[in-house]
Sequence to fold (352 residues):
Amino acid sequence: MEEIDHIQASPDHAIVWRGGRLYLLDQRALPERAGFLAFETASAVADAIADMVVRGAPAIGITAAYGAVLGARARVAEAGDDWLDLWEEDLELLADARPTAVNLGWALARMRRFGQGLAPQRAEAELLAEAERIHREDIAANRRIGQLGAALIEGPANVITHCNAGALATGGYGTALGVVRSAFAAGKLERVFADETRPWLQGARLTAWELLQDQIPVTLLADAAAASRMAWGDIAWVVVGADRIAANGDVANKIGTYGLALAARHHGVRFMVAAPTSTLDLELASGAQIPIECRDGAELLGCGGRTLAAPGAGAWNPVFDVTPAELVDAIVTEKGVVLSPDTKKLADLMRA
Ligand code: MRU
Fold:
């Protein structure tokens, strides 16, 4: 696929709709290359989500919403008044691209609802306006999450983060990294320790790239070093994002988050989950019901495209885990902060 270099790339400018096409900053190539790929069909967008061109729960929801616009355009051209039934196939294809992040299904359900009853000649323009609203609302939510999360942090503090829950993983600004950015702007944050996040290295490649552009001091940790750093006694908070939060406050996030939460509790380090309410799935009673994506073992057996493991070794590669609510000190959403989350507190938050 052709790489586009005429769009200015930045973490806050990674999903771009221009001239009737969707452009995605190819996150697989960062930080070595910051180039965009162009998309004109819903199925190519679904492949881009599955292949990690774009990743991060809110970002894949927003991308899928734009993918639904591309699908609607083609279905109207194909079937005129009968476009909706065919469009449903696109929505299902997009929803199946990755299973764990509920933002994907959330954004597509919103597009589906909005599409019902639209006249074919208005469908593309109206659906595009809805996708752009989803995108803008996510950025606004992240800014609020940033303020609320930063207010919990007493400076000067060091924090550990895992994976990338930054601008790249969202519509812009970031969730966990939104908290980091806000805390840094308020003079409360000294340094971010970023887990490298095997096997895709979202921490080493993406989180470090984002933070350095804001001149936020960042030190990488091998994933296995986080507990030892906590034992030093200079970490105040772990701040992470989420792919899905169940009704009881159990949190699915990048594999390794659960271990981090266990280590944090042992060392008296506080544990914050920053996520928009589009990441809450109140239909699932607990994290046990969250579908966990298991990717190709080959991702684990090597690094940077080169196989490193002994030939013949198998690999188990679940890419998310579930942290029980009892290990979470705070869930920070754009609607408010829930301390020591449980089913009642989260239901109250969503009712408010
Ligand atoms: O596999 P990824 O890179 O899509 O996993 C992303 C994460 O686990 C993020 O922490 C999560 O989606 C929150 S992004 C704001």
DSSP finds eleven helices and 17 strands in the chain. The pocket of MRU is lined by residues 55-58, 101, 163, 165, 169-170, 175, 202, 241-243, 253-254, 319 (CB under 6 Å). The mean pLDDT is 97. The longest strand covers residues 189-195.
